[in-house]
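task queued by scheduler; priority normal; single chain, no ligands, no partner chains; default sampling; output format set to C-alpha cells
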Amino acid sequence: VVRLRLSGAGGYADLRGPNTCEVLDPGEVKLLRDRLGPDPLRADADPEVAWRRIGRSRTPVAVLLMDQSVVAGPGNIYRAEVLFRQGVDPRLPGRRLAREQWAGIWADLVALMADGVRAGRIDTVRPEHMPEAMGRPPRVDGHGGEVYVYRRAGQPCLVCGTAVALAELAGRNLFWCPGCQPPVG
C-alpha cells in the first residue's frame, strides 16, 4: 500500500511502510524526533542509548529492533536480515543479547542502511552468496534486492540449506533460519 507519493521533475518516490503519514509543523517534528532512538544513518547516533534499553528488556530482540523509540529506522527487512547476518535468534530476549552481539548488529545496521540509501534498494547478501557466485537465479520480489531470509519462508537458507521459518511476532511477519539462528538454551 502506498501511503504517500512524492513527485517532481526527476521522478517520484513512494512511501510504503509507515503506519502513519502526516504533515507536521516544526515543533511537532522536534517532539517526534525527541521520542526516537538512535538512527544508524546518522554519524552522531549513540548506539549506547539503544543498548541500555535492549540490555534490560525481556522483550524479544526482533520486537525491540522494530520499536522506533529504541532504534530509529530499521524496518522488517533490515530487522530480519541483520539478525540473520549476526546469527541471533530473533526471539531472544533483549537482556540475553550479548553486548558484542549488539555491537555487531549496530555496525551491520549502519553499513547496510547506508548502502541501501546509496543504492536505492536493500541488498543484504554478502558477495559469496550473490546469485552470480552461487549460480542461482536472482530474487524476484517487489521489494527488490538480494536477501537471506526476508520473504523467503520455506525456501532453503543460502548458507546452510535449512528451510527459512516464518512466524508472526508483535503483529509483523518474522523470517529467520533455524539452522543459522538457533535458539539459545
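post-processing summary
- The domain at 4-176 is CATH 1.10.8.50 (Helicase, Ruva Protein; domain 3).
- The chain is about 30% helix and 10% strand.
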